[in-house]
Amino acid sequence: MTLPTPELLRAPVVQPGPVWLEIVQADLRLRVLQILADVPMCKANETVVANLLDLYGHAVVRDQLRVELEWLVAQSVVRIDHETPLIVVTATARGLDVAKGRTTLPGIARPELR
């Protein structure tokens, strides 16, 4: 009987790649929209959004959150108010439709059925 070589005993290391990153980004974007759909006036500042994202398992740094928020602005699903000391994000009607699963957009995960 031949014993396996040490190379065969080691599990392959899975490196985060583009597919993994796309899945995480799409879920994070959906969670931002769902957070905004659940708060009064569909509006929250970036600190509140970041803290609530943490509850969904997305521990994001502020710069990463701002990049994602700007991406969501480009898709016309949120608006950002830069007039205040904090960045305030508001969901648009289109964003609420995506959050509720009434429509879909590439790059944003679909909500699971409840």
Radius of gyration: 18 Å
Query: Which runs of at least 5 residues are low in confidence (pLDDT < 50)?
Result: none
Strand tally is 3
Q: Determine the strand fraction and express it as a percent band.
A: 5-15%
As for the CATH topology of the domain at 42-103, it is Arc Repressor Mutant, subunit A
Strand ordering within the main sheet = 1-3-2
**Average pLDDT number:** 88
Helix/sheet category: mainly alpha
Q: What is the CATH top level name of the domain at 42-103? A: Mainly Alpha
CATH architecture of the domain at 42-103: Orthogonal Bundle
Largest sheet: 3 strands, antiparallel
Q: In CATH, what is the homologous superfamily of the domain at 42-103? A: Winged helix-like DNA-binding domain superfamily/Winged helix DNA-binding domain
Key traits:
114 residues; mainly alpha; Arc Repressor Mutant, subunit A; three-stranded antiparallel sheet; globular
Q: What report would you give on this structure?
A:
Helix 2 packs across helix 5. The chain has a domain at 42-103: Orthogonal Bundle (Arc Repressor Mutant, subunit A). The chain has a 3-stranded antiparallel β-sheet with strand order 1-3-2. With 114 residues, it is mainly α. It has helices at residues 6-9, 18-38, 46-55, 62-74, 93-100, and strands at 43-45, 78-81, 88-91.
Q: How would the blueprint of this fold be written?
A:
Blueprint (H helix, E strand, L loop, with lengths): L5 H4 L8 H21 L4 E3 H10 L6 H13 L3 E4 L6 E4 L1 H8 L14
Antiparallel strand pairs: 1-3, 2-3
Short account of what is shown:
This protein is mainly alpha-helical.
